[in-house]
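Reminder to self: tokens first, then the designed residues, so the page reads top to bottom the way the pipeline ran.
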């Protein structure tokens, strides 16, 4: 059962995730924001101790902090780094807290089979495993990737009874993980935040928005991925320019467009008998269009 409902089961900390995190542009500021928020939820006991130590009482606000849930929603267009960031955040979090962790990624194909009646079961099974893994010194993370299909708003008229039931189950399970006192964290990623049920959105401790890279980030991405080739500042600027929104009808290239489409194609045009040049790169970019935005 476990293998079939999860795409991926990872033990944390993981050296390979940490290695990949190094190449994630803009990760540090995202992580800072999540960690400063989440440490309040993950360490309720510590917070009460802190309050008593410095203020002699348990400040009322501490009780109110509990109204939030260890739920992080990652929202943004395709290819903006939601999935890689979920793993990176989980890995970094266990390192910061000096704990061990378990990362479960719900298998989206199972969900995609469309047997609506089974979605509720799937959610139930995933959370039982999450609870089972949330051991004493271990933090268990569950990623429901591309959660739109499970978590769409209950008010949609055409929604099947079974789908509504699955959303309700999900809300109930989110409520239950609070009882695990910070040993379980749920990530949900979505391309369409406005489709996610508002009761779920309201519970999220953090909604992290992912965007396509801005100019500086595109420069950084080319620079970092091609370190060892000596491009001038001007050339890097130009690569960033021609992959930006101004030169592409208002919508620039995504992180994955650059990393997983432009660069591999440019390499394919060079390998095995030519060096990878600036000209090959610009030529490749001119033949590729940014992936369309998901609305
Ligand atoms: N911040 C980033 N810095 C560098 N590369 C990134 C970044 N975000 C995404 N990528 C690249 O894009 C690819 C797709 O990211 P992914 O997490 O699958 O996007 P999403 O889940 O939002 O569709 C990653 O494998 C990585 O190569
Ligand atoms: Mg993804």
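Designed residues (295 positions):
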């Amino acid at each position: 059962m476990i293998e079939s409902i999860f795409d991926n089961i990872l033990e944390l900390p993981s050296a390979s995730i940490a290695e990949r995190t190094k190449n994630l542009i803009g990760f540090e500021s995202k992580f800072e924001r999540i960690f400063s928020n989440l440490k309040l939820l993950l360490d309720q006991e510590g917070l009460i101790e802190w309050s008593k130590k410095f203020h002699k009482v348990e400040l009322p606000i501490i009780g109110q902090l509990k109204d939030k849930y260890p739920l992080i929603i990652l929202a943004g267009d395709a290819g903006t780094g939601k999935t890689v960031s979920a793993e990176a955040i989980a890995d970094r979090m266990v390192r910061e807290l000096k704990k061990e962790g378990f990362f479960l990624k719900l298998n989206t194909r199972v969900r995609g089979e469309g047997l609506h009646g089974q979605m509720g079961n799937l959610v139930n099974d995933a959370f039982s495993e999450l609870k089972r893994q949330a051991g004493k010194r271990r933090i268990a993370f569950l990623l429901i990737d591309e959660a739109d299909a499970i978590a769409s708003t209950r008010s949609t008229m055409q929604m099947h009874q079974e789908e509504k039931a699955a959303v309700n189950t999900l809300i109930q399970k989110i409520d239950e993980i609070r009882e695990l006192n910070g040993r379980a964290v749920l990530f949900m990623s979505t391309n369409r935040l406005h489709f996610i049920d508002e009761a779920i959105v309201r519970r999220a401790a953090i909604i992290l928005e992912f965007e396509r890279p801005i100019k500086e980030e595109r420069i950084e991405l080319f620079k970092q991925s091609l370190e060892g080739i000596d491009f001038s500042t001007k050339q890097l600027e130009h690569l960033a320019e021609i992959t930006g929104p101004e030169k592409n009808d208002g919508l620039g290239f995504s992180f994955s467009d650059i990393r997983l489409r432009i660069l591999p194609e440019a390499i394919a045009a060079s390998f095995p008998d030519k060096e990878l040049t600036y000209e090959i790169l610009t030529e490749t970019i001119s033949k590729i269009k940014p992936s369309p935005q998901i609305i």
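The pocket of adenosine-5'-diphosphate (ligand 1) is lined by residues 23-26, 76, 78-84, 189, 210, 221, 255-256, 259-260 (CB under 6 Å).
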